[in-house]
Amino acid sequence: MLIGGLQRFSLIDYPGKISAVVFTQGCNFRCPYCHNPELVSFNREGLIEENYILSFLEERRGKIDGVVLTGGEPTLQSDLVDFLREIKNLGFLVKLDTNGSCPEIIEELLEAKLLNYIAMDVKASLENYSEIINVKVDIEKIKRSIDIIMHSGVSYEFRTTIVKSQLKRDDILKIGESIRSAELYVLQSFRPTKTLDPNFLKETSYTKEELEDIASSLKKLVKRTIVRY
């Protein structure tokens, strides 16, 4: 495992649970608004040893409920299955944050019963995906991940970070179409505090009221939409 960071305690990353957050190193997308730019490359300097993480978690048994695997993109890690099995053996719930580019890995993790919650970032409408993430993407893999997650039987959410210049109202409604009948869709307000592309420090999100209005329009497409502002 390439592990670039550890947050020892979180009340917000795993809905309804107290968690630790493990940040994997390396991502195959290049979203300009990414708020973890230091985790995008597969840099091997300053990594945290896997055994250190497992020892830390062993000491936290009974004090936290679960572990969130985020990144970077966790499904790119070749030994993810073994790592999550170790975490599950310690008795923790596991939440996976993913961009959905590796549906076969998501499926493998589900079949092995290693996941309790999945959060997939749906970056854009399917027709504009590559333009938003700045790399070519196999859109069929994104669609397959959406389908796998919706039929997984575990708790899940789809979420989109809303940068006003990148996603218009119609774009967000098209995303809603691509996840039609999903249990939960989260509109995340963009916060220009740290970005992969420095130019995006000047970008803005919609107001909370505007996002709430868009969320209301999504009611006919998904079962529940919330705004994280």
Please characterize this protein's 3D structure:
It is a single chain. The protein has a single domain, classed as TIM Barrel, CATH 3.20.20. The protein is built from seven helices and eight strands. The chain is an alpha/beta fold and 229 residues long. Strands 1-2-3-4-5-6-7-8 form an eight-stranded mixed sheet, covered by helices on one side. Helix content is 29%, strand content 21%.
Question: What attributes characterize this protein structure?
Answer:
single chain, 229 residues, alpha/beta, TIM Barrel, eight-stranded mixed sheet, 29% helix, 21% strand
How far apart the termini lie comes to 32 Å
Low-confidence stretches: none
Following the backbone from N to C, one meets helices and strands in this order, namely EEHEHEHEHHEHEHE
Strand portion, in percent? 15-25%
* Rough outline: globular
User: CATH homologous superfamily name?
Assistant: Aldolase class I
Summarize the structure.
By secondary structure, the protein is of the alpha/beta class. The chain has helices spanning 50-59, 80-89, 103-111, 129-133, 139-150, 169-178, 208-217; strands at residues 3-10, 19-24, 66-70, 93-98, 117-121, 155-162, 185-189, 225-228. β2, α1 (50-59) and β3 form a beta-alpha-beta unit.
Helices and strands, with pairings:
Layout: E1 3-10, E2 19-24, H1 50-59, E3 66-70, H2 80-89, E4 93-98, H3 103-111, E5 117-121, H4 129-133, H5 139-150, E6 155-162, H6 169-178, E7 185-189, H7 208-217, E8 225-228
Parallel strand pairs: 2-3, 3-4, 4-5, 5-6, 6-7, 7-8
Antiparallel strand pairs: 1-2
Helix pairs in contact: 3-5
